[in-house]
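Tutorial, part two.
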Amino acid sequence: MKNTIKLFGVIALVAVIGFSMAGCKEDETDPKPQTVTYTGTADGVTYTLKITENTARYTAQSGDSYELTVGTKKSTGTVQSVTGGTLTLQPSREGAATFTATVSSSGITAMNGTIAFDVGDSQEAPTTVTPIPPNNGNNAGKTIIITGYPGSMEAGDVHFTSIVPVGTDFTILGNSVVAAAWYPDNGVSISNNTATIRLKASEDPDVDDAIWTDWTGSGTFDVWIAPKGTQTGNSFYKAGSVSITGATTTIEASRFSFIQKLQ
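Running the prediction step on this input gives:
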């Protein structure tokens, strides 16, 4: 890995699961509806379920509204019933059947049925969903999710993503990496045009047996990707001045510009 990092000066990405809840102040005379969000991943795709409650409380109930985001698609509707941690969801699309999502404080733990999206097609809910414990606040491990991920940026035998200080010159990328991830060994998962990147950092990145752990920093950085099908270390995609503060940062693939290193 030492030699690979030196060649690319880049590395990076994976999925995250989060659970968050917005509270109400006890002295409010007119409590506002709260939202609770559950997230999980399946086959490299992130599923985010947001429940909007119709009274000030902390658990979902029948009659609440839901919004499920799967990559760039959305399914909205109402919560038909709640049994334990299993929510039966009725999509708003005419003629759509219900499906279920099982949730816990860690996120989405299971799904079943057919998800009907508001626009376009439907898809079978994943049979296996992996939740990740809550990562709320600036001290949580950071994940980048790239949506609309095109074939030209598809992960192959070599694929790295890294974040560096804004304005870092191409020639010193290798010495400026703040955090990174790479495919397929460490932190990168790509499926259905969505790339999920769990940023990693190491105190000794140039050592062959370096220990890489979740990066918990925050700030504004340039994001670099070494894509498939380019000469090693010569071509990159760059998204400039990306703010990374929360547990998950979503970037549209269209924000990346192709950069060819001069020979």
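The longest strand covers residues 73-83. In part three we will examine how such features are distributed along the chain.
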